[in-house]
Amino acid sequence: MDWRPTASIANLTVRARMLQAVRDYFAATRALEVETPTLSRAAVSDLHIASVEARVLGQRRYLHTSPEYAMKRLLAHGCGDLWQICRVYRDEECGRWHNPEFTLIEWYRLGIDHHALMTDVERLMRAVLEPAHPLPASQRLTYRDAVRLHAGVDALEDPAERLVECLHAANIDVPADLHAERDACLDLIMSTLVIPRLGHSGPTFVYDYPASQAALARAHGPVAARFEAFLEGLELANGYHELCDADEQRRRFQQDQAQRAAAARSVAPLDEALLQALAHGLPECSGVALGFDRLVMCALGAKHIDEVLAFGFAQT
Predict the structure, then answer these.
(1) 196 in a domain, yes or no?
(2) Nearest to 74 by CA among 19, 31, 114
(3) Residue 33 counted as domain residue
């Protein structure tokens, strides 16, 4: 193991300045900075996210993959607009764009929808990146339009067979067990054909994801009130007009758990505290998580996440 840091001192200096710019931005908008526990007895149910398990005082706990659940409990208690910078942890993710331990900026605004939150995200990005890294005007596309533009298929209407044909035509291998999984094929199309082409002429916001990918967002017919932000071919942020219905959220969590069990993946307990908070009453709000390390990569033109981390995973 090399004891030296993976990031240069110059890069770490830029990172520190960007962190200060983040704090200045939220202070100016009068959002409350909070800290929530990184350990929880519950874990995320999403099929595609792997939690890191820990043993504490002989009890099973999980390192959080996002502070979302705890922050929503604060919202339900009446905290108002709030935000935090925190370390989060995800297993099975390590490479050019991923480190198992990384930094998220997560925040929630009361009384606005996801379209207004996109504007807020863009303002933060400009406050942190400019003037050293000027950003051209942003672009907004529906998920359907983005997929049609860059892959030539209809994300809401085309059957899985057509999506597989699209991937094969682009010389992308599709595992046989995914051929009937429409959302899995769409994820592959997004990651290989769409996302690499987004955000090269300014920030790009993709919204109205398929309702089947709503996660913790509200759904309206075939689409979810969800967006993602991209810059220079990188996904930076994922935001929702937040679902406030505890019964619907429980149903989605249980559906996720069934999918995890069917895929022979670990199934963790549901976050009953979150569900109780939703039942108590989550105020009308929208929230977003932004990957800070990737934002620093964009600022510096870095080619690997290790270049913006004091110590990458191999050095820990």
Answers:
(1) no
(2) 31
(3) yes
Distance separating alpha carbons of residues 50 and 92, to the nearest angstrom: 6
Q: Where is 246: in which H helix or E strand?
A: helix 246-262
101 in any annotated domain: yes
According to DSSP, the β-strands at 223-231 and 101-110 are unpaired
CA distance 242 to 114: 8
Query: Full-prediction pTM beyond 0.70?
Result: yes
Question: What's the pLDDT score for residue 76?
Answer: 98
Domain of 95: which CATH number? Answer: 3.30.930.10
Structure tokens at 213: 């990918």
Mean pLDDT in runs of 10 for the chain (316 residues)? Answer: 95 98 97 98 93 96 98 98 98 95 98 98 98 94 98 97 97 93 96 97 97 96 98 98 98 96 93 98 98 98 98 95
DSSP 3-state of 137: coil
Q: What is the DSSP letter of 270?
A: P
Tokens of 273: 């505290």
Residue 1 has a pLDDT of: 81
Cβ-proximal residues to 282 (8 Å cutoff; 6+ apart), any chain: 72, 75, 76, 242, 244
Domains identified in the chain, total number: 1
Task: Quote the pLDDT of residue 56.
Answer: 97
What tokens were used for 33? Answer: 């900075």
Please give the single-letter amino acid code of residue 12: L
Residue 301 φ then ψ, to 5°: 70, 30
DSSP 8-state code for residue 268: P
Look at residue 180 and tell me if it is in a domain.
no
Contact 229, 207 (CB under 8 A): no
User: What domain range includes position 236?
Assistant: 9-138+202-315
Structure-token match 């932000």, residue found: 229
